[in-house]
Amino acid sequence: MGLTDTPSSERVHIGFFGLRNAGKSSLVNKITGQELSVVSDVKGTTTDPVRKTMELLPIGPVVIIDTPGLDDIGELGQKRIEKTREILGLTDIAVLVTDASSSFTSEEKELVELFKSKDIPYVVVYNKSDLIEGDIKPVEGNSIVVSSKTGENIYELKELIGKLAADSKEEKYLISDLLHEGDMTVLVIPIDESAPKGRLILPQQLVMRDLLDHGFAFASCRPDELADTLSSFKKAPALVVTDSQAFAEVSKIVPNDVALTSFSILMARYKGELTRLVEGANKLSELKDGSRVLISEGCTHHRQCNDIGTVKLPKLIRKFTGREIELDFTSGREFPTDLSSYDLIVHCGGCMLNDKEMQRRVRVAVEAGVPIVNYGVAIAKMNGILDRSLEPVRKSL
C-alpha cells in the first residue's frame, strides 16, 4: 500500500476553520496548489465542508477539510456552523485562519478554546498580510503571518503544520506487537459478497501490511480451507485471525491452545476503543421486546442480499435475544446527535473512519448513557466465544 493508496482513515486530517471571508478557501488553494475551494469576495461562499484527499509535503498523505464560516447567519447558517463543529470531531490538526487586518473576535477565541479542550494541535494563521502596513502582533503564541495572495510564508506554514503532525503522531500497531520473532499467523478470509470482486476489505489489507512491515510470515485461506491449512504446518501458528462473520465456524476448527481473534477486534484495539465496546457487548443479553437498537456503518456501499449490517446482524441479534427488537440503520457520515431513544448501538469496525471520528462516536454514545459495541465484539459475544477472542489482546483492556 503506497502513499497514494493510503486510505482516508489512515491520513492526517487537517481542518481549516475561521470566520467568513477570512481567506480560508484562498489559503487552502495556495497550500494545496489546487483550486480545491471556490473563492469569492462574497461572504459565505463555502457552504459545506469541502474535503480533498491528497499528498501534501512535508506531511505526506492527508485529508484537507475547508469548512464554512463560523459567523454564518440565519437558520441555514446555524446548520452550517453545526457541520463545522462536527468536523472538529475528526480533525487531527486544526488551522484557524483569521484576517490580519481585523481584531481577533470572540468566536475565534472560543474556537481556540475548543481546540485546547479537545486536545487538538492547532496553529493560528494571520492571513492577508499584504493588506497590512507594519508588523502584526499575533494574539496566540502558536501562530504565523501569511498572505494567500502573495504566497508569503506559505512554505513556512506547511512546515509548521508538518511539525505539528509529526509531534502528534503516535506509533500504533494492528497486530505485530502481539507476536514474537518467528511466529506465523493465519488469516481466515471469507469471500465477502458485499466486497467488490477481487478486493480485500480494508481491515484485512491493513493487517497484512502490518505483518509485512514488521517481518512476520502469514498464510491466508477461506473458512472451508482452514482445517487443511492448519494441518499443513509442522508448528502450530501463534495466532489465527478471522473475519467476524466466520467466527462460529472458525472457532470450532482452531484448537483451544491456538490463539484466536478477529479483524474487527484488532481494529477496535487499534482505534483505542476496545474496552468500551466490550462493555457494550453485555447489553446484548439485557435487550427486551421493543428495545431499540441502532446499527451504524462508517462507510457506504451497495447493499447485497445477505448484507452483514442490514441482514445478518439483525437475524443474529433476534436469535440470540429471542426478542422482538426495533432496528434503525445509518451509514457513512450520518450518525445521530441525539441517541437517547436507543438501548444499544452496534457499530461497524470503523475502518473507513479515522481514529478521532470513531472515538467521537463512542464518546457521544457514552455521554448519552447508551452502550455501544462493534460488529466483531457483538458477534463473538453472541457465539459464546468473546472471552477466547479477547485473550490475545487482553493486555489492551
Domains, number: 3
Low-confidence stretches: 37-47
CATH superfamily of the largest domain: P-loop containing nucleotide triphosphate hydrolases
Q: Biggest sheet, strands in spatial order?
A: 2-3-1-4-5-6
**CATH architecture label of the largest domain:** 3-Layer(aba) Sandwich
CATH level-1 class of the largest domain: Alpha Beta
Number of strands: 14
What does this structure look like?
- The protein is α/β, with parallel strands linked by helices.
- It has 3 domains: 3-168, P-loop containing nucleotide triphosphate hydrolases (Rossmann fold); 176-267 and 386-396, 3-Layer(aba) Sandwich (Rossmann fold), CATH 3.40.50.11420; 281-382, Rossmann fold (3-Layer(aba) Sandwich).
- It contains 13 helices and 14 strands.
- The chain has helices spanning 24-32, 74-88, 106-117, 154-168, 202-213, 226-231, 247-253, 263-270, 274-281, 308-321, 355-367, 375-382, 386-390, and strands at 12-18, 50-56, 60-66, 93-99, 122-127, 143-145, 184-188, 217-221, 239-242, 259-262, 292-296, 326-330, 344-347, 372-374.
- The strands form 3 sheets. Strands 2-3-1-4-5-6 form a 6-stranded mixed β-sheet, with helices on both faces. The protein has a 4-stranded parallel β-sheet with strand order 8-7-9-10, sandwiched between helices. The chain has a 4-stranded parallel β-sheet with strand order 12-11-13-14, sandwiched between helices.
- The two termini are 30 Å apart.
